[in-house]
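Pasting as-is:
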Amino acid sequence: MKALAASRKLPTVDFVIGAGHRTHLSLLAIAKSSGARSIVLMKPGLPMGWFDWCVAPEHDFKINPDKPRVILSKGALNRVIPAKGNGSEKWFLIGGPSKIHGFDEDRLISQIRDLACDGNWQVTDSRRTPGDFLGKLGHQIPNLSLFPHQDTGSGWLAGKLSGAAEVWVTEDSVSMVYEALTGGAKVGVLKMPRLKPNARVIRGLEKLKEEGYLAGNGACEHKTLAEADRCAVEILTTCGIPR
């Protein structure tokens, strides 16, 4: 394996971390050859017991696996760093149609219009957003600041979410919901047509609502996720490694 050969040139490490089904065999091989512990950041396609730890979103499981060295997180871990001070920016994050959600353009614009009457709002879209949507949105609600995803670089959104005060995300963009919560913003969900109401990602969103993480008709309780930190502390504590 190319990854295994390349790993021999690296310094000694305590952990080898991977995500994605294609990394599984390389992750296990490198961990075995180096004596490091293996951590897979997902529900793996291989038996979970083959890895030292599995850190996976809780919505990937219909039943809690309740197994040693399996750590369930709220959503996938992400690179967003919570702001040290109080953020001020307000954002709409727009996704698009998927296997689980449709895209009701008129309803979405109506939801944004109702929220955008308060303060200055910024909007960015994603690769799944219909190409003409931002143009239509800007025409109907001209006081919005628009940032097409084609004009932004890697890590741009993570940086913006670290300084946001309030973020509303289309329901289909589950990863951005968790990223916004990690950044420390008050987070709400813009409703989208549900094609598969019982899908695991929708179950995850409903659980967030039940636990008070997401805004409803009024302001939500301000809760912040720090799942990467929590999972890291649990692993280090189990290993007896000082933090």
